[in-house]
């Protein structure tokens, strides 16, 4: 499959929305950078008006309510403050979202209520009693098979599993089994393939009807169930609707739109089995692809406040620069499996790939081009290095399956070719002016090409190089990256 096959007319790109119980850290940041890179690429491929990118915060639920109580703040003020802090963290990474949605937004509360009411009227939701286990950290109902040997949720071992007995509204989840099985068997509905197999395995165990509300006396912070003020809509049922809330009015939930959700592996079940069931029930379009990534660990440990190892995106950006942070996570992030990061490795990559790599090669070519006094004709993008279509070049082929890491590898191979060309042809030693022009034109055009295709990945750096090279007269400037 190539990047040009089945090119969509329009594309909706989303990230999961984060719980507003605490400010996001670098573990959350990866997904935003990944989705942003894909959104920026498709804007180049399809045009700005044909791409819509959504991120935001999930503000309702038990964990947020209790966090507000612990902080001694009214829950409305607490969630607003955390959402604003999250937005600052995301903005520091140069994330180019079209909408930052909050589940307390008026239009979302109305849309989520309408979703629930229509499902209730269709008979897919009924009222009953639930007895079982609940993890507040996941905001999810659990079975014994999902707990570890100590009876804890593997993702929230510091929390006690709650035994609950309560009245709820239930979704007849099992009724959607056959539709969901067909959906999971659709090519590229879940990527990577291993994650699809996990969901097929879960489905094979048999779906149970799912509680989709909580009693208001237990969870006072949520959207009321239509017609029943004693119940609030279950936080996951509420949260998933955010994609539709944001996209539908903008014209991005139509049949011709490709819908891609980027999510962490811990919430794949809700996105691949619950969300499609909700949409099928209402006769609405199903997402095209759910891309599932792994977790980011720091120095071999899970990132958490209790361990005291939280690093915020804005702190990394202030120390190393936004594009260095973007590059590191796009190249070494958990695109398919969990990864372990460290500041030592970050600085090693920064020096090797950015300061000594990209920055050094750009500086060398700029200096030689300026010293030569040659004016280099700026050709049309498609003519540079013989690529007919810049945004559908061979370098972009891994983006068909959202492999930004492999795409950067291909771009750095182009950079390596330019560096090799310098060392082989030694322009500083060339005496023939015609031969020197030929050598430098290849090298200048190489950097022009690389600068442009880097734009979705390192937008600021790309702009600086283009300002320097996409003119007839190339000039030297300050270093792009200073060695640490």
Top keywords for this entry?
seven-stranded parallel sheet; 17 strands; 484 residues; 45% helix; alpha/beta; 17% strand
Shape: elongated
The span between the termini is: 40 Å
The number of distinct β-strands equals 17
Rounded mean pLDDT is 92
Strand residues, percent: 15-25%
| Helix coverage percent | 40-55%
Q: Compute the gyration radius: what is it? A: 25 Å
Major beta sheet, specifics? 7 strands, parallel
Total number of helical segments? 15
Low-confidence residue ranges: 1-5
Q: Based on helices, strands and strand pairing, what is the structural class?
A: alpha/beta
Give a brief description.
The protein is α/β, with parallel strands linked by helices.
Structural account:
It is built from 15 helices and 17 strands. It is of the alpha/beta class and 484 residues long. Strands 1, 2, 3, 4, 8, 13 and 14 form a seven-stranded parallel β-sheet that branches. Strands 6-5-7-9 form a four-stranded antiparallel β-sheet. Helix 5 runs antiparallel to helix 6, helix 10 (313-320) crosses helix 11 and helix 12 (343-372) crosses helix 13.
């Amino acid at each position: 499959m190539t990047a040009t096959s089945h090119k969509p007319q329009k594309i909706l790109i989303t990230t999961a929305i984060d719980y507003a119980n605490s400010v996001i850290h670098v573990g959350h940041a990866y997904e935003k950078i990944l989705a942003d890179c894909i959104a920026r690429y498709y804007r180049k491929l399809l045009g700005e008006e044909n791409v819509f990118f959504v991120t935001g915060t999930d503000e309702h639920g038990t964990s947020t309510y209790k966090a507000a109580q612990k902080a001694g703040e009214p829950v409305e003020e607490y969630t607003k403050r955390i959402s604003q802090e999250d937005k600052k963290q995301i903005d520091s990474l140069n994330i180019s979202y079209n909408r930052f949605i909050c589940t307390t937004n008026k239009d979302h509360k109305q849309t989520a209520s309408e979703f629930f009411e229509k499902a209730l009227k269709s008979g897919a939701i009924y009222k009953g009693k639930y007895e079982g286990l609940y993890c507040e950290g996941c905001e999810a109902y659990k079975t014994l098979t999902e707990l570890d040997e100590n009876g804890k949720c593997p993702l929230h071992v510091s929390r006690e599993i709650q035994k609950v007995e309560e009245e709820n509204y239930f979704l007849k989840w099992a009724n959607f089994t056959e539709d969901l099985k067909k959906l999971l068997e659709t090519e590229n509905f879940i990527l990577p393939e291993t994650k699809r197999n996990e969901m097929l395995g879960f489905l094979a165990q048999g779906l149970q009807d799912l509680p989709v509300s909580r009693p208001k006396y237990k969870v006072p912070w949520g959207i009321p169930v239509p017609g029943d003020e004693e119940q609030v809509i279950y936080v996951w049922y509420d949260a998933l609707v955010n994609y539709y809330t944001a996209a539908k009015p903008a014209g991005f939930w139509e049949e011709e739109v490709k819908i891609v959700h980027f999510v962490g592996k811990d919430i794949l079940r809700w996105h691949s089995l619950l969300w499609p069931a909700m949409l099928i029930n209402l006769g609405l379009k199903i997402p095209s692809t759910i891309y599932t990534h792994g977790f980011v660990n720091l120095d071999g440990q899970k990132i958490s406040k209790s361990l005291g190892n939280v690093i915020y995106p804005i702190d990394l950006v202030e120390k190393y620069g936004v594009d260095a942070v973007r590059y590191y996570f796009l190249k070494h992030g958990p695109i398919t499996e969990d990864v372990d990061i460290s500041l030592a490795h970050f600085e090693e990559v920064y020096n090797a790939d950015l300061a000594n790599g990209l920055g050094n090669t750009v500086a060398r070519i700029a200096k030689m081009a300026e010293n030569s006094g040659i004016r280099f004709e700026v050709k049309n993008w498609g003519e540079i290095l013989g690529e007919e279509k810049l945004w559908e070049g061979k370098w972009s082929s891994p983006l068909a399956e959202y492999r930004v890491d492999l795409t950067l590898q291909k771009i750095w191979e182009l950079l390596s070719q330019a560096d090799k060309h310098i060392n082989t042809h030694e322009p500083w030693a060339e005496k023939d002016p015609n031969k020197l022009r030929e050598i430098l034109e290849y090298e200048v055009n190489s950097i022009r090409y690389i600068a442009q295709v880097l734009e979705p990945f390192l937008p600021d750096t790309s702009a600086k190089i283009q300002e320097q090279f996409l003119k007839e007269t190339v000039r030297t400037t300050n270093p792009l990256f200073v060695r640490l």
